[in-house]
Amino acid sequence: MALNLDDYYLPASLQEATELLQRYGAGAMVVAGGTFVHGLEVRGLLTETVALVDISRLGLRGIGASSKGGVSIQALTTLAEVAAAPLIGKNPALAAINDALHYPPRQILNAATVGGCVAAAAPLYDLPAAFLALDGQVQTSLAGRQRSIPLDEFFVGLFESALQRGEIITAIDIPAPAARTASAFLKLETNANDLSLLNVAVRLTLDKAGNCADCRIILGGGVGETYVRATGAEAALRGQAAGEAGFAAAAAAVVDDFEAVEDHRASAAYRRHIAQVYVRRTLATALARLG
Ligand SMILES: Cc1cc2nc3c(=O)[nH]c(=O)nc-3n(C[C@H](O)[C@H](O)[C@H](O)COP(=O)(O)OP(=O)(O)OC[C@H]3O[C@@H](n4cnc5c(N)ncnc54)[C@H](O)[C@@H]3O)c2cc1C
User: Fold this and answer.
1) How far is the CA of 44 from the centre of ligand 1 (A)?
2) Which of 22, 81, 145, 225 is least surrounded by Cβ atoms within 10 Å, i.e. has the fewest?
3) Which three-class secondary structure state does DSSP give residue 26?
4) Nearest Cα to 80, choosing from 127, 122, 131?
């Protein structure tokens, strides 16, 4: 199919970007790092798009402490910049973020942006799973109005998000973690350029006695149209001593939390098996980070 692209814009302000997105409506597409958009283009999937609105000159880049002790990552920050950020790298509670950035190839890390990674709403991507485990919030702007969307409510289907037409992600905020919290992420791929067969992100908070006071377990990859919160596995672990027996209970419960996908890359039975192994391993990694 032919590409109907007529116009390419490089707005210098959010307001200008918004005006362009409103003017072109369904015919406009935002571009940030362009790595996902390029994939759409080469597959002939941009036939409805007549204007690209490149937001890479809007600023919106950098990582800082947010007002309530959390971290705010602006939307146009590249994945490589996140991986290099001391504010994230030194904090065991946020370690799932760095784990997730271990996988994409260097060219993607350098070009892809945090906002694009989330906005694509592709459950095969790694970083959004980590953000979900950390209770992330998506900050957006639409025609001068700002809103905050919990990531829990952001992903509504395959390539479908809660964003309205013309709405731009401005930042991803991660709230301050509770004391005695660590996180971890693990992905199964068939080769270094592969998207996940399955991925798991966890956040673990212990009480003073070493029991699991709270946890988050997120599955991505071959688990359906979007990410899955493994609530059964979380319930099996909450209140248990953090250690092998509790992690095994969570792993046993996780198979009832999702419908494993069966495709040419892996059988559903294999994905169910890997989910159990990876839930145990990511929890053990998070626990080890708590010393
Ligand atoms: C070879 C290759 C290997 C990869 N490997 C991995 C991997 O190992 N792990 C992994 O997780 N991912 C991987 N990816 C996917 C990669 O993470 C995404 O392509 C990337 O994060 C998208 O970000 P971007 O800035 O390039 O987005 P773009 O391509 O610019 O945009 C993506 C989508 O989001 C929209 N958008 C972008 N920014 C905003 C915004 N601020 N507000 C609203 N909408 C916006 C665009 O309109 C588009 O629909 C890989 C991709 C490639 C091509």
Assistant:
1) 17
2) 145
3) helix
4) 127
- Domains of the chain as residue ranges with CATH: 7-54 (3.30.43), 64-174 (3.30.465.10), 181-289 (3.30.390.50)
Q: What is the pTM of this model?
A: 0.96
Closest residue CA from atom 6 of ligand 1:
104
Mutation probe of ligand 1 site: the residue of 45, 106, 108, 218 with most atoms within 8 A of C-beta:
108
Phi, psi (deg, nearest 5) at residue 61: -135, 130
178-236 per-position pLDDT tens digit: 999 999 999 998 877 778 899 999 999 999 999 999 999 999 988 989 999 999 999 99
On the question of pLDDT at 103 being above 60, the answer is: yes
* Nearest-CA residue for atom 5 of ligand 1: 104
Residues in CB range of 191: below 8 A, 6 or more apart: none
Please tell me the distance between residue 288's alpha carbon and the centre of ligand 1 in angstroms: 31
Look at the block and give the residue holding tokens 């991803």: 172
Q: Is pLDDT at 135 greater than 60 in this prediction?
A: yes
Residue 269 backbone dihedrals phi, psi, to 5 degrees: -60, -40
Residues having CB closer than 6 A to ligand 1 are: 29-37, 39, 55, 75, 103-105, 108, 111-113, 115-117, 119-120, 125-127, 163, 168-169, 193, 195
